[in-house]
Amino acid sequence: MAGRGAVRLDTQTWQEQGLETRSPGRTRGEISQDELAHQWSRVRGRLQEEIGEVEYRNWLRQAVLHGLDGDEVTVMLPTRFLRDWVNKEYGNLLTAFWQAENPAVRRVDIRTRPAGTSERAPDLAEVEPKTAIARPAAAARREAEERPDMSAPLDPRFTFDTFVVGKPNEFAYACARRVADGHASPGFNPLFLYGGVGLGKTHLMHAIAWELSQRSDEVTVAYMSAEKFMHKFVSALRRQSTIEFKNELRSVDVLMVDDLQFLIGKDGTQEEFFHTFNALVDSGKQIIVSADKSPSDLSGIEDRLRTRLGCGMVADVHATTYELRLAILEAKAARAGVVVPGRVMEFLAQKITANVRELEGALNRLIAHANLFERPVTLETAHEVLHDLLRAYDRKITIEEIQKQVAEHYNIRVSEMSSARRARNIARPRQIAMYLAKQLTSRSLPEIGRKFGNRDHTTVMHAVSKVTELIEADPDFAEDVELLRRILTV
């Protein structure tokens, strides 16, 4: 990289200059290698904290800072695939964290390491500075201005635009929108979101924070996990700076605390949160809290705090339906610009039912596998790549379950499996269900017939024969039956 104010960090530069203090004659706007090292180290730490250890290790561990040129940071990765994946999935987050560390940065350029480079250039976060230097006055002032900021970083992917709304979450979404449109609304303070893991509570909280922050620079929002709240409180106790901690928290306009169940059994932290809660609500400030259970079911939380948490709006994020899971997968694939066959997405939506994070993670794994090995995404690769995840959903197959799954797939009532109706749109799914019952269970033909409206065993034999014939003659029909079989067995 050329240009005034550039800090270039390749192997030769590090060998020749190491991490010496900046020259006295450095022009204004330049920063030393030490300063850049500190910034990169903090950015990596925030990335690791935000996306988790597993994702960080898989996608970002090999990222190396190449340098800073003016307002552009360059990060190097070893392969084009990693470069494209990180740019698509984490580019915005990386830019946001860099701008938080250095407001002068406007762009993060993610590149591949030049061909022929046999040795990995040293990463700034891994090299110990040889000489400690005094931080420049501008950086010191910036840190002083940022110190009161209690908020954890927000994920730029978690906005209202990217939240897929369905029957299970529409009420929680509407409540979140109401608070984002005008915080401290009567009847909505506090807003308490609750539901199982991976159903969208954190997404909604981030979306509220983004919306409020973009609407007005004057609204101060502090978002943090309950664990971070406790950590900051304990740190303040150790530093004997609890007054400063209280003042910082109570100066915000909106306080958001995620995963409140973490405070169960932490009496001292509960006490502090209770007083902070009262102080903010009494001042007309907004409180938004999430947990895995409703306030009345949070055993281990003091009664007075539980009562206050339930006095506003309590919204449940229910478990997802098949339709919502399918919509989430379609939206994610569209945002990623990847074509995934509809049957694969139907398979994932049918099989992975408990957790949206697992659902999205499964899709990410399939896309990554397809890109790495240059293979199309198919039902076979889904079975191969996700075998460990799908194993958790294994269960004993029953005829009732087969009937329910086939009926849902063909959009008919389960009762039609036992009815006397012989219309083609009813008879064909019934035959498929009989065929799958014969293939996937140990029931005899007469037993299967009894489960389908006391039909004779010869009717079951005819159904099995007919479906076998259609599978051999019609590839689309065969794929349909195979999809149902995989949904039921994997």
Which descriptors apply to this entry?
alpha/beta, GMP Synthetase, Chain A, domain 3, Rossmann fold, Helicase, Ruva Protein, domain 3, 4 domains, five-stranded parallel beta sheet, 9 strands, lipid binding, cytoplasm
Walkthrough of the structure:
The structure is a single chain. The protein is an alpha/beta fold and about 500 residues long. It folds into 4 domains: about 30-110, 2-Layer Sandwich (GMP Synthetase, Chain A, domain 3); about 160-315, P-loop containing nucleotide triphosphate hydrolases (Rossmann fold); about 320-390, Helicase, Ruva Protein, domain 3, CATH 1.10.8; about 395-485, DnaA protein, C-terminal DNA-binding domain (Chromosomal Replication Initiator Protein Dnaa, Chain: A, Orthogonal Bundle). Helix content is about 55%, strand content about 10%. The chain contains 21 helices and 9 strands. A 5-stranded parallel β-sheet has the order 6-7-8-5-9, with helices on both faces. A 4-stranded mixed β-sheet has the order 1-2-3-4. The radius of gyration is 28 Å and the shape is globular. Oligomerizes as a right-handed, spiral filament on DNA at oriC. This is Chromosomal replication initiator protein DnaA. It comes from Acidiphilium multivorum (strain DSM 11245 / JCM 8867 / NBRC 100883 / AIU 301). Keywords: ATP-binding, Cytoplasm, DNA replication, DNA-binding, Lipid-binding, Nucleotide-binding.
